[in-house]
Amino acid sequence: MRMQFWKTAIEEIYRDDPPNQPVSAELWRAVRKHYLTKRWLLRIITEREKDLDDRAYRNLQELEKYSENTQSSLIYLLLECLGVKDVHADHAASHIGKAHGIVTSLRATPYHSSRRKVYLPMDVCMLHGASQEDFIRGSREQNVRDVVYDIASQAHVHLQHARSFSPSVRAAATPAFLQTVVLEDYLQRVRRADFDVFNPSLQKRNPLLPLQLYFRSWKNTY
């Protein structure tokens, strides 16, 4: 019901007749000001609606597709707000969004496991003989670490691909890409924890993160 409301709201926003609701009104203003692409907004809603099925991803590609349709779509909209329309920036955004989705699935694993839910790609879990019960009981055995290693490695690959476009991406796009600092921080910390996703150190905040974000912003790099 909630998703249908937003689908209808998007259609009404693009007819210049937004619902009498605060978020819709602000979104309508943003659409008018930045000429936001309707497809990206609808793609986010549609993909979130599919995710209500509450099941694990069948494979890593399915997780990447979900991440592309949600996180990457949001970055495309941010680029439009920044006035950046560039194929290299779009390629970078696609990879950053996928990395974001993958890292989010890892970061949320302890929380979901505590509620007897596991959403990590089933093909990677099966490859290493790790069951859902292993994650639910917070196992720190090697097979669980191997699952985390494979998934984290894919996120790292996407970050590397995104940064390979950096020489061709306008500096104006940097604010939309600064999330790479947070993603890289988590990947480095999970590596130092030997890919033990349940390590308590991963639940602590990095006090230097704001400084790192400021430094990247000042250098106009991601």
Distance between the termini: 38 Å
Largest sheet, in brief, is: none
Identify the overall geometry. Answer: globular
Query: Which strand-content bin applies to the residues?
Result: under 5%
Number of β-strand runs:
0
Q: SSE string, helix = H, strand = E?
A: HHHHHHHHHHHH
Helical proportion? 55-70%
What class, by secondary structure content?
Answer: mainly alpha
Oligomer: single chain
> Taking all residues together, what is the mean pLDDT?
96
- Indicate the low-confidence ranges by residue numbers: none
Radius of gyration using CA atoms only: 19 Å
Number of helices: 12
What does this structure look like?
With 222 residues, the chain is mostly helical. The protein has 12 helices and no strands. The longest helix has 23 residues, at 142-164. The protein is globular and about 55 Å long.
Keywords:
222 residues, mainly alpha, 0% strand
